[in-house]
Specification:
Blueprint (H helix, E strand, L loop, with lengths): L4 H4 L2 H23 L13 H48 L7 E3 L2 E2 H17 L2 E2 L2 E2 L14 H6 L7 H13 L3 E2 L5 E3 L2 E3 L6 E6 L8 E7 L5 E2 L8 E5 L9 E7 L5 E9 L9 E3 L4 H21 L1 H15 L8 E3 L13 E3 L24 E5 L2 E4 L7 H15 L9 H15 L9 H37 L3 H27 L2 H5 L1
Parallel strand pairs: 13-14
Antiparallel strand pairs: 1-2, 3-4, 5-6, 6-7, 7-8, 8-11, 9-12, 10-11, 12-13, 15-16, 17-18
């Protein structure tokens, strides 16, 4: 008689064997996959830790990707800013006020080089990073600067820098020659007729054009140079005693760009220079005063064609390059009856009559740096925008364009002196500085932003590793522990199978024996 196996095998043993088999299969899967579970539900209480840390990892990865992009962009911007600064430095070194030899198209070697460097600077400012123009502030979809040809020579009905300079120069020069009333005019100054013992020099109106009287002095006994006064300002030059050889008069004028110029006239009884630096001692005090007046007019005329012209170019360029989409350049106001020689005011240019060199973002309510921002960590946002119209950058472009715009006509007797005056101003403008707004200052601000991003990346790297460790502690299966558990379960399972096999073979005879 055979005893039934089902009666002998308890349900408990069967369930235990099934559970052990399931455990064995799960341990085998853990050993092969390295994971405690294929689902979050299988992690038990550890699933909340896993979900939270994975969310953090996703956030950290986003920040890290942003930092990588920002650092790459800042690397490009930093390189380009350095290059622009180098272009300015090279131009300053190559500009020699004493060299005025024209080599091509009415320009000196330094001017030809300035045009080449201007093209290069504008190309650098038109750089894009992954399709985004980085020197346009928030306007990243187009090149923020115009090409040099448009900037210098205009575009159709819109005039460029050269025309703006010519217009302003004419206004600064004013009417030249006698006015029919015994007075002479030049550089917006009126030099009155000699009364016998004095003559007057007056500005021709209240405006920003031409020479401005700053004062003067004399070493001639009994002579005077009064302090400028009145509206418009004027001064008197008087002489009651005859001048002696070597005695001087000095007249100081201020130019449109804020620089000053001294006109010095030295008394001489012998042959005198024709450039106005000397005045002939005449037979009478009145004759000497006449000669002094003539010398002053000669020097004012020369200075108006040279230093005044150079200063006029500087202020024209400053106005032209101060422009942007929301800031029109200034032009001479020719509202009738005003002419270029009699103008007394400036007007805003229009988008249809003047080229605007910078077409990027120039919203005054947003700083250049804040025109591009990025969050690089919880609660940490860096500002790394840059605009081509920032003063430090613009100064280099403006100065290169200013120098490249000047052309000397053949036979121009004043070319050398005008070139010298302009070259002096170019060198002065390109002198390295570190104050606010310079390229050095801009680079320092961007470097600070990059340092913040780099520091954030360091913290994120640590936080990322910590999060990964926490995830691994919950999700990752320990190979040694799993292997030991497999051996234990395998041994128990094998014993259970052997017991089941023995029980399955048990008969009544074997049982009673």
């Amino acid at each position: 008689m055979q005893i039934g196996a089902n009666s002998m095998l308890s349900a408990t043993l069967g369930r235990a064997m099934t559970d052990m088999r399931s455990t064995f299969d799960d341990l085998t899967r853990q050993l092969s996959s390295g994971k405690v579970s294929e689902t979050y539900g299988g992690l038990g209480s550890g699933r909340s830790t896993s979900l939270a840390m994975r969310a953090k990892l996703s956030q950290f990865t986003g920040y890290q990707n942003t930092i990588t992009t920002v650092n790459s962009r800042l690397g490009l911007v930093s390189t380009n800013l350095t290059h622009i600064a180098d272009l300015g430095s090279e131009q300053r070194s190559d500009t020699d006020p004493s060299v005025s030899t024209v080599i091509a198209n009415g320009q000196t070697r330094a001017q030809v080089d300035a045009r080449a460097r201007l093209d290069e600077a504008l190309s650098v400012l038109g750089a894009d990073f992954a399709g985004s123009y980085v020197f346009g502030g928030r306007a990243t979809d187009h090149d923020p600067v115009e090409p040099s040809a448009k900037i210098l020579d205009g575009d159709g009905a819109k005039v460029g820098l050269r025309a703006v300079i010519a217009e302003r120069r004419a206004a600064d020069l004013g009417t030249v020659g006698p006015d029919g009333l015994g007075n002479d005019q030049v550089g917006r100054l009126t030099v009155g007729a000699n009364s016998g013992s004095s003559f007057n020099i007056a500005e021709d109106g209240i405006h920003s054009f031409g020479f401005k009287l700053s004062g003067g002095a004399t070493t001639v006994t009994g002579a005077t140079v009064s302090t400028p006064s009145g509206s418009p300002p004027s001064l008197d030059i008087g002489m009651t005693q005859q001048a002696n050889d070597g005695q001087t008069f000095r007249l100081t004028v201020t130019l449109p760009d804020g620089t000053t110029d001294d006109l010095t006239m030295t008394a001489a009884s012998a042959a005198i220079a024709t450039d106005g630096s000397q005045f002939q001692i005449g037979a009478t005090v009145s004759d000497t005063l006449d000669n002094l007046r003539s010398a002053i007019l000669i020097q004012l005329g020369t200075e108006s064609r040279t230093t005044l012209a150079a200063a006029s170019s500087v202020v024209s360029a400053q106005s032209f390059f101060a422009a942007g989409p929301n800031t029109p350049p200034k032009r001479v106001d020719l509202t009738p009856p005003a002419t270029l020689a009699t103008a007394t005011a400036l007007r805003d240019a229009t988008p249809t009559d003047t080229v605007v060199w910078y077409t990027g973002d120039d919203d005054p309510s947003v700083t250049a740096r804040n025109s591009a921002t990025a969050q690089v960590d919880n609660g940490i946002t860096i500002s790394f925008g840059v605009r081509a119209n920032e003063e430090g950058v613009t100064k280099v472009v403006r100065t290169l364009a200013l120098y490249a715009a000047e052309v000397y006509s053949p036979g121009d007797a004043d070319a050398a002196k005008r070139n010298s005056a302009l070259s002096d101003r170019v060198r002065s403008a390109l002198e390295p500085k570190t104050d606010a707004g310079t390229i050095t200052a801009i680079s320092a601000e961007l470097a600070t932003a990059q340092d913040s991003a780099t520091a954030a990346k360091g913290r994120l790297d640590i936080a990322t590793n910590t999060a990964k460790d926490l995830i691994d502690s919950v999700e990752k299966a320990d190979d040694q522990t799993v292997a030991a558990s497999i051996l234990t379960v395998q041994t128990r399972l094998q014993a259970s199978y052997q017991t089941s096999a023995l029980l399955a073979k048990l008969s009544l005879v074997n049982y009673m024996g």
